[in-house]
Amino acid sequence: MNCIDYMNKISFGISIAFCVLCSCTSRTGQKSSDETLQVDSLAQDTIAETVAEPVVKKITPEEIQITKELLYDKYTLEDTYPYKDTTRSFQWEKIKEQLALLENIQIQPSQWAILQNYKNRNGEAPLVKNFKRNAYGRVADTLGVERYQSVPLYLLTDTVTPERYGQDGELTRFIEDGENFVKAEPIFTEGEWMIPKKYVKVIGDTVVFNKAIFVDRHNQNITALERTEKGKWVVRSMNPSTTGLHRPPYAQETPLGMFVLQEKKVKMIFLKDGSKETGGYAPYASRFTDGAYIHGVPVNEPRKTQIEYSWSLGTTPRSHMCVRNATSHAKFIFDWAPVNETIIFVLE
């Protein structure tokens, strides 16, 4: 072998070794572009999965701001005002609590509904497991909600016998549909219940409750408020009213609760106690639960013309269940408050 051949073989061997070394370095020290893309993609997916959705902070009663911009300014009461040898007032702190609740339940989009059984039109509710008879001789659950005009609420684990009754007109969150029952959450009653479908009127997921009316049984007054933006409400009226009187067998208290305005009547005809004879009418009536309306001064037969005001407004309970107002204020509520979009709170 000559010297040139020997040198060529050495050069060839060095070249092969260099190629092998480069190949090994590429496989062990560097990742291919495909591998790099795959790892980056996985890393991005992992990052995307761990990003938390923004949490909308609930508003507190202390954050609720109430200002006054009256749209109805007759017979307006002060925040605190004299009554006989004492004073009465608007319970703004309680009102703020309920306004905060009303805002917070609307943070997440919901399908809203109303419990309905006015005059047992959807069928008499079945007997609950434990019941009693009240001062009117009518069946009621252990919490005092009457069977008449009410809605049966069943436990999620027992749809044979209802546990308690829900009130006609109660605002309810619709959760899940079923063949004969729906799962729903009445806001005032609280908790999730199974409810026969015929008692639940769905009003949709686009409705927004920006108007609220507060009826105070203790102070015998009424105020209407409107939401202008988050946490901000303006007072539209502050007036004397008269609520229902506990007087069996015909007159009874205006029920406490959180209700949806359900219907309106320019004239709500009423009967004489214990009779089928017409007793007169109540003007500009807005119904929110059972036979309870916000209305003007009642007009008894044979009179036909309206009565604007009564000395008894803002004094003591004296109606059959309704909330009496000055007739012009009842008309203001009638015109201002939309059906299915206005919430009526009855406070003590």
Automatic annotation (TrEMBL):
The keyword Cell wall biogenesis/degradation applies. GO terms for molecular function: carboxypeptidase activity; transferase activity. The active site is at residues 295, 322. The keyword Kinase does not apply. It comes from the Bacteria. It holds the Pfam family YkuD. Gene3D superfamilies: L,D-transpeptidase catalytic domain-like. One of its GO terms (biological process) is peptidoglycan biosynthetic process. SUPFAM superfamilies: L,D-transpeptidase catalytic domain-like. InterPro entries: LD_TPept_cat_dom (IPR005490), Transpep_catalytic_dom (IPR038063). Residues 211-347 form the L,D-TPase catalytic domain. Pathway: Cell wall biogenesis; peptidoglycan biosynthesis. Keywords: Cell shape, Cell wall biogenesis/degradation, Peptidoglycan synthesis, Transferase. Belongs to the YkuD family. This is L,D-TPase catalytic domain-containing protein. It comes from Bacteroides thetaiotaomicron (strain ATCC 29148 / DSM 2079 / JCM 5827 / CCUG 10774 / NCTC 10582 / VPI-5482 / E50).
